[in-house]
Amino acid sequence: GSNGLGSWGYIEGVDELLSQLNELKLDHVVFACGSGGTAAGITLGMALANKDDGAGAAASAPTVHAIGVCDSPDYFYETVANIADEMGLNLPPSSSSSSTEDFVRNNLVVHQGKGLGYAASTPEELDFITSFASE
Predict the structure, then answer these.
(1) What backbone phi and psi angles, to 5 degrees, belong to 65?
(2) CA nearest 40: which of 111, 100, 112, 115?
(3) Percent of all residues in the chain with a pLDDT value above 70, rounded to a whole number
(4) C-alpha–C-alpha distance, residues 14 and 48, integer Å
């Protein structure tokens, strides 16, 4: 499982990534999500880096996408909010976000990515992988 302490490392990772990009701009950040820790750290890291005050994603912030490999998107929004609370996220009184989960939903898009299971793919998925890899 994930926890607030472990998610701090992803905030540091976001800082390192952005410092290496220099002036290059990210449009999207996409990663797999299994327990919520990566999603919590990257979401909060991007919000902090782009000085989001809780009123929604900052204009220059990339869209953060978590591809859930298990459970539902709603589960991950709640889990990421719980981890953010554990990390000490305090929304300012001026925030348009009414809760931590609202803040998370404003700064993260969770996609359902759960397939048939480990090492089990549909023919359509295999065709996509083959096509994508050959381009």
Answers:
(1) -120, 125
(2) 100
(3) 93
(4) 10
